[in-house]
Design a protein that fits this description.
The protein is mostly helical. Helix content is about 45%, strand content about 0%.
């Protein structure tokens, strides 16, 4: 069974937490503005919280 792009759906899509964190940080660093960053993260199924390394003190 293929999707619109000809992909079979049998690809290994498991992504480690570290890969997700790094991807989030790359998107945030290269996006033109906050709106573009949010849009790109949404396209990748990521959230800004994924890229955080340390929680801020309250």
């Amino acid at each position: 069974m293929s999707d619109d792009l000809g992909m079979t759906g049998d690809l290994d899509v498991a992504v480690s937490t570290e890969q997700r964190r790094r991807a989030t940080r790359v998107v945030a660093a290269t996006a033109a503005d906050a709106e573009e960053c949010a849009e790109l993260l949404a396209m990748l199924g990521l959230t800004p919280q994924v890229g955080q390394i340390h929680k801020r003190a309250a």
